């Protein structure tokens, strides 16, 4: 029996790989090869706290596959980061980058830390300590990190600074020569005035919104549709605002401290303002306080998990009343819950499609750095829409032709593209 904390996300990823591989004519060795990462890096490093005390931290970088291009994927700072979680996230990045057809492989990293307990100077030393150790295996044409849970543009700036320092040491040995702009392409999700792309911050939410709008058209659904969003960080707050502006009714929102429910709709912008002022979601607007578990089981049309993995499990799958689940978090649904949703005819739009907008604009950012270009917000959003609608259409065609779930369909699409580049 699965239990939320016991589900190993990497096992979920491998189950998904097997389910889709049976529909694609792949050589046996390819499936075998894609069942484990090309390279895993496990790190330990000391960080000086403001008190003068030294603490030791564990870090990870998983480089899953590079057949389609440099490894690409975010860095997560979280107290529960473990190697198998990072492996699963890196695997999903490989699939996702192929679904939206950007020329990247899959990677992911993490540090086992609760960043909320650190001061800004401690966070900077931690980021630089981690970067120093991964510097030899990352680079604009080798492995390109980005922000993920609890990391942001400032952390990417520190990463670039330390990478540049380390490059000076390395280039003395290896003659690596990059321009200032190219050096910045070692990571994405940077602030706009530091080589970041316009539109990157809201890109994941916006990409999910484009996918949802296409789905609503395909299924001929009429607005207003009721939406519940779990998580109100980068991804959750942007998609909640976008759907609310587009005529959906956002009835529930949450953060790690609790949820807020109002069947008549919440004022998303007001919740965001209060959250920015340091309030929790539960304290920020008129409505009923409910638990995070209750939010998932509300009678809504669309449920949007946008927090962490393993929130939809065997324990609650049968209680989910939404008709559509738009997976904005990575890996929110366990394999067993997925089967129940299939049986209960709940349409699950998988993470590798729904949240691929972030890495798509990360690719645009990388491209602009490498080619010394600066695109307008309109250009970025138009290109993002084209990529997301294209990925949705390709997935939907396979879903209909092969009578498989959108998740299996997106994996089929990705595996075909990955296998094409097998050596
Ligand atoms: P974030 O740190 O900005 O926000 C996470 C939010 O989830 C916070 O509001 C936090 O309070 C909330 N949360 C944590 N535990 C919760 C719980 N049990 N119940 C309800 N809320 C909870 O992170 P983010 O960047 O928004 O990422 C969210 C998810 O989206 C992650 O799975 C991440 O991997 C995925 N994702 C992010 C991006 C991106 O561009 N940021 C891209 C693709 C996928």
Compact overview of the structure:
Helix content is 45%, strand content 16%. It has 423 residues and is an alpha/beta fold. The mean pLDDT is 95.
Helix content range: 40-55%
Main sheet: strand order: 10-9-8-7-11-12-13
**Parts with pLDDT < 50 across at least 5 consecutive residues:** none
Question: Sheet with the most strands?
Answer: 7 strands, mixed
Description:
- By secondary structure, this protein is an alpha/beta fold.
- Helix content is 45%, strand content 16%.
- The chain is built from 15 helices and 13 strands.
- The strands form 3 sheets. The protein has a 7-stranded mixed beta sheet with strand order 10-9-8-7-11-12-13.
- Helix 11 links the parallel strand 12 and strand 13.
- Helix 1 packs across helix 15 and helix 14 crosses helix 15.
- The longest helix has 26 residues.
- It is globular, with a radius of gyration of 21 Å.
- The relative contact order is 0.14.
- The model has no long low-confidence stretch (mean pLDDT 95).
- The structure holds nicotinamide-adenine-dinucleotide (NAD).
SSE topology sketch:
Elements: H1 9-21, H2 28-33, E1 39-48, E2 54-65, E3 71-72, E4 75-78, H3 83-99, E5 106-112, H4 120-134, E6 143-144, H5 153-174, H6 180-184, H7 200-218, E7 226-230, H8 234-245, E8 249-255, E9 258-261, H9 268-276, E10 288-290, H10 292-296, E11 302-305, E12 324-326, H11 335-343, E13 347-349, H12 351-354, H13 357-370, H14 377-402, H15 406-420
Parallel strand pairs: 3-6, 4-5, 7-8, 7-11, 11-12, 12-13
Antiparallel strand pairs: 1-2, 2-5, 8-9, 9-10
This protein binds nicotinamide-adenine-dinucleotide.
């Amino acid at each position: 029996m699965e239990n939320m904390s016991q589900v190993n996300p990497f096992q979920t990823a491998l189950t998904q790989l097997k389910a889709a591989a049976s529909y694609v004519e792949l050589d046996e060795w390819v499936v075998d090869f894609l069942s484990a990462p090309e390279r895993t890096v496990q790190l330990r490093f000391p960080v000086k706290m403001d008190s003068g005390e030294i603490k030791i931290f564990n870090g990870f970088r998983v480089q899953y596959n590079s057949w389609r291009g440099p490894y690409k994927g975010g860095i997560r700072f979280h107290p529960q980061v473990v190697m198998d979680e990072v492996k699963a996230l890196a695997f999903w990045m490989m699939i996702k980058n192929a679904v939206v057809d950007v020329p990247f492989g899959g990677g992911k990293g993490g540090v086992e830390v609760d960043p909320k307990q650190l001061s800004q100077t401690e966070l900077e030393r931690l980021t630089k300590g981690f970067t120093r150790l991964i510097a030899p295996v990352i680079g604009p044409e080798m492995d390109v990190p980005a922000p993920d849970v609890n990391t942001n543009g400032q952390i990417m700036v520190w990463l670039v600074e330390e990478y540049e320092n380390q490059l000076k040491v390395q280039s003395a040995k290896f003659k690596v020569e990059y321009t200032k702009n190219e050096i910045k392409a070692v990571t994405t999700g940077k602030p706009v005035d530091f080589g970041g792309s316009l539109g990157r911050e809201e890109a994941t939410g916006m990409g999910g919104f484009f996918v949802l709008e296409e789905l609503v058209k395909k299924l001929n659904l009429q607005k207003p549709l009721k939406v519940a969003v779990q998580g109100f960080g980068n991804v959750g707050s942007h998609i909640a605002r976008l759907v609310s502006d587009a005529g959906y009714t956002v009835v529930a929102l949450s953060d790690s401290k609790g949820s807020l429910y109002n069947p008549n709709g919440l004022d998303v912008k007001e919740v965001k303002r209060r959250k920015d002022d340091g309030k929790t979601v539960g304290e920020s607007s008129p409505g009923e306080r409910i638990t995070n578990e209750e939010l998932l089981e509300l009678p809504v049309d669309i449920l949007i998990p946008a927090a962490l993995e393993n929130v939809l499990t065997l324990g609650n799958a049968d209680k989910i009343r939404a008709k559509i689940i738009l997976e904005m978090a990575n890996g929110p649904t366990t394999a067993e819950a997925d089967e129940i949703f299939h049986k209960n005819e709940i349409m699950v739009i998988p993470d590798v499609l729904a949240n691929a907008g972030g890495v798509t604009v990360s690719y645009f950012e990388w491209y602009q750095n490498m080619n010394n270009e600066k695109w307008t917000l309109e250009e970025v959003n138009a290109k993002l829409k084209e990529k997301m609608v294209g990925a949705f259409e390709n997935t939907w065609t396979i879903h209909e032709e092969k009578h498989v779930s959108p998740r299996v369909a997106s994996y089929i699409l990705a595996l075909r593209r990955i296998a094409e580049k097998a050596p």
